[in-house]
Specification:
Blueprint lengths: L1 E4 L5 E4 L1 E3 L2 E3 L10 H31 L7 H11 L12 H11 L10 H15 L11 H7 L9 H13 L4 H22 L1
Helix pairs in contact: 1-2, 2-4, 3-4, 5-7, 6-7
Length: 197
């Protein structure tokens, strides 16, 4: 059973898939308020059903792409399926707990990635890539996108992302040099936004 905390500290416990079916994380304690506990079980049931549905949809995407490794379109399509994480029902659940579950239930989503922690990072990249926009995919290579999207919430800053994609198209920056350039852009943005205030 995975205990997951939101940023607000509200605890959501997700169960896990077993050979016998789904085992709920929420338990009933008759010494406590039953209505609140039943509400948690119902919420977990709804969340579980959504995850199961989306995992099945991801398995359909897997069938359409024979070449998955470093395939931006594949990562984008899986990311679109992961966008259910934006729903209010999932706000109190850490995305990495769901990524781990996706990998456990459907390892064929990332067949060449054996470590669960690395696979979860790839799913995070997929999720973020789907927020970028399909038209921007070709503006950087897979390796560049992987470096760009390692930066937390950078995909939400369209102006900064456009600057980064422009240098990716003009210069062949990868790995350390690309990360350093992104850090420079972020620092200059903080400095310029500090001067305005």
């Amino acid at each position: 059973m995975k205990s997951t905390f939101s940023k607000k500290g509200k605890k959501i416990e997700l169960g896990k898939r077993t050979n016998e079916g789904y085992k709920y994380g929420a338990k009933i304690d008759f010494a406590q308020d039953l209505s609140a506990q039943i509400s948690r079980v119902i919420k977990e049931k709804e969340i579980n059903e959504t995850i199961e549905k989306k995992v099945k949809e991801m398995q359909e995407v897997v069938k359409k792409f024979p070449g998955k490794e470093k395939n931006l379109q594949y990562y984008y399509e899986i990311g679109k399926k992961l966008s259910f994480l934006d729903n209010d029902s999932f706000k109190n659940i850490a995305p990495y707990s769901i990524f781990r579950r996706v990998i456990e239930e459907s390892p064929e989503v990332l067949p060449n990635v054996q470590e669960k922690e690395v696979a979860a990072k790839h799913l995070d990249i997929m999720y973020k890539l789907a927020h970028v926009g399909e038209d921007d995919l070709s503006k950087a290579t897979w390796d560049q996108w992987y470096e760009i999207l390692k930066f937390k919430e950078i995909y939400k800053d369209k102006k900064l992302l456009e600057q980064i994609l422009t240098i990716c198209e003009k210069e062949s920056l990868f790995s350390i040099s690309l990360r350093e350039r992104i850090k420079e852009f972020r620092r200059s943005k903080r400095v310029s936004s500090g001067k305005k205030g």
